Amino acid sequence: GLFNGRSKMIALFVPDIINPFFPELARGVEDFTNQQGYTFLLCNTDNNPAKEEAYMHALKQKSVDGMIVVSSTISEEHVKESNIPIIALDRILNANLSSITVKNRKGARTAVQHLKSLGCHRIAHICGPENASNTLDRLGGFLDEVKEEPWFLSSYVQAGGYNYSMAVQVTKELLVNHPEIDGIFAANDLMGAGVLRAAQELGFHVPEDLAVVAFDGIRLSETTSPTLTTMVQPIYEIGRRAAEILIHHINNPHDAIQAEEFKVELVQRESTQVKR
Ligand code: RIB
């Protein structure tokens, strides 16, 4: 209220409001904060540090009580300047914040092990944006599984940027240059959908010629043709948990920061339903 300097408002930063992962995540944050009597503000940042800073500045003027950020770029300095509790969600920041993420490296390993168990032995990874912590963790998990394999070529890693059209484009280039590839691990579901599209355009049959596994478990993964095998994240729950921790920090500003990692789960669908 007026006398304690609190606005009873919290904000969530997301990099890409078009990606269905983020509305589901936002819903988890909003449900919890709303139940606690907070007004919820959503800011779309496009992964753009200038936009993030402008929003942080505006929110400070409005005396927002706390923030949850999905970001790769917010610096320790800006966190200190803001002088309010901030939680890193989905991506780790080098800024000494409480964080809620999933087991990205382990999940990526499970995805690639799944492709190997189908008999794939020329596996490629289409990876996310280079500065996101979860891109590096998923890439790390992929490399853990393939780097000792005799068939592994580093050119099998290609950047796609958590983005559908980029994934279509880079997958096409990859498959034209390496038609021997028989399995692809896409860093998220949108990119997995892009891989399916590229394969279809080039006449590769999924899963017979090419098995595909992705990451996230957004509803889209159940509606593509073929449906997508994916590492399902508890998207709504991690949003809700981040909100819970944020409100805890708002009420207990001196409590120690904490990092939580949620499990992901392989859900097999048509894109890997292959008999070899
Ligand atoms: O689809 C959005 C992706 O970016 C997800 O994989 C999520 O973990 C985020 O970082």
Describe the structure.
Keywords: DNA-binding, Repressor, Transcription, Transcription regulation. By secondary structure, the protein is an alpha/beta fold. Helix content is 41%, strand content 20%. It has nine helices and twelve strands. Helix 3 (76-82) links the parallel strand 3 (66-69) and strand 4 (86-89). Helix 4 runs parallel beside helix 5 (133-146). The longest helix is centred in the last third of the chain and has 17 residues, at 235-251. Alpha-D-ribofuranose binds at residues 19, 21, 90-91, 132, 134, 162, 188, 190, 215-216.
What attributes characterize this protein structure?
6-stranded mixed β-sheet, 20% strand, 6-stranded parallel β-sheet, Rossmann fold, 276 residues
How is this fold's topology laid out?
Layout: E1 9-14, H1 21-35, E2 39-44, H2 49-61, E3 66-69, H3 76-82, E4 86-89, E5 98-102, H4 104-117, E6 123-127, H5 133-146, E7 157-159, H6 164-177, E8 183-186, H7 189-202, E9 211-216, H8 220-223, E10 229-232, H9 235-251, E11 259-262, E12 265-267
Parallel strand pairs: 1-2, 1-3, 3-4, 4-5, 5-11, 6-7, 6-8, 8-9, 9-10
Antiparallel strand pairs: 10-12
Bound molecules: alpha-D-ribofuranose.
CATH class of the largest domain: Alpha Beta
Tally of individual helices = 9
Oligomer: single chain
Overall structural domain count: 2
Beta-strand level of the residues, as a percent range?
Answer: 15-25%
Bound molecules: alpha-D-ribofuranose
Gyration radius, rounded: 20 Å
Helix share of residues? 40-55%
The appropriate CATH architecture of the largest domain is 3-Layer(aba) Sandwich
Question: The CATH topology of the largest domain is what?
Answer: Rossmann fold
Low-confidence stretches: none
The sequence of SSEs as H and E is EHEHEHEEHEHEHEHEHEHEE
Largest sheet: 6 strands, parallel
Number of strands: 12
The largest beta-sheet arranges its strands as 2-1-3-4-5-11
- From the spread of the alpha carbons, the general shape counts as elongated
The mean pLDDT is 94
Give the full name of the CATH homologous superfamily of the largest domain: Response regulator
- Terminal Cα separation, in Å? 65 Å
Q: Pairing-aware structural class of the strands and helices?
A: alpha/beta
